[in-house]
Amino acid sequence: WLRSLKTAQLQHLAQKTGIPSSGPKAALVRNLECGLGECYFGLLPPPPPPPDAPAVVGTGDAAKKPNASMSILSIDMGIRNLAFCHLLVDPASPHSREEMAMPSVKLNAWNRISLPPRMVSPAEFAQYLASSFAEPDPGPDPGTGSEREKEESFPLHLYATHAYVFLSTLLARYRPTHVLIERQRFRSAGASAVQEWSLRVGVFEGMLYAVLVALRQQQQQQQQQRRQQPGSGLSPWVVGVEPARVGRYWASSAPPNTSIQDCEIHRKKSTTNEGKRVKIDLVAGWLENGRVRIPPGNEGEGEGDQVGRWVDGYLARWRRSRSGSRKEKVDVKAEAKERKVDVGKLDDLADCLVQGVTWLEWQVMRERVVREG
């Protein structure tokens, strides 16, 4: 039935489902047929194993189980500003599918860290991660001048270790069913030069994928030795998400379920700064109106009140940036100081959360298209 649609209709459908929307009609049909077949909503990996089971991970070829809950780990790439969030998504009910309602999303963890400039063990990194939840954006210890030089030199063995420790810590902590990793581009804004920092982040991105594949192979060997059924362990799907595609998704229409008043910006030709502002405003709107909720401290697997403090700090800084008068800015600053939270830059935190929610909306739309045609 896709071949009966016009090219403009195919492009619109591809954009709404996170599928490449460029090329002639024949290419669009092929992209949609392939992309719609990769629907992760409604067909999910098995639920995580018990806490005493070994924490191993793979690329997601486990047996599929319909209508399971989703545990999404969304990573916004960086070295000094590496942001991530963990989202819990309730299973889709038949009633919600009939009404085309978005599933409930809980923000279980939200953080931004800087990779330490030295080797750390998994236990040390877990402690560093816990301290970063308690004290937002602490950053690594700047150390001495020689340590700064080592950091600038970007030793590959150091960041390979960080890739393993970072992923193994988060996988053991949150046991995600899906891992989303921001895709990197070596050039930005059409520039001809390739910045060194983009190369470093791109190399680190490749290391994350290599670690995930290595852990998957390790899992398969363990299963063969123990004669377990393939895919019986924790094996999240790993998906790369292109930021440009996320931006185009929100630029094509006003965001649903948001209390932001100035939605006209979503229809403008996006620039880099406008794109950042759009995402920051989107997240603030979701947090204000309950589109993204915070699980109570005594429920789920979350960091409890620490997530609430990050949300309060984000909203306080966002309101301060939008305040017109000096008095309003002082009042908002006093509110943030009362909570003793300063989350720093908002764009990295917004990027990882928008990436997770957008990818979820793509999957819901794909499931609907496959189901209804």
UniProtKB/TrEMBL annotation:
GO terms for molecular function: crossed form four-way junction DNA binding; DNA endonuclease activity; flap-structured DNA binding; Y-form DNA binding. Residues 132-152 are annotated as: Disordered. Transmembrane segments: none annotated. One of its GO terms (cellular component) is mitochondrion. Signal peptide: none annotated. This is SAP domain-containing protein. It comes from Aspergillus ochraceoroseus IBT 24754. Residues 2-36 form the SAP domain.
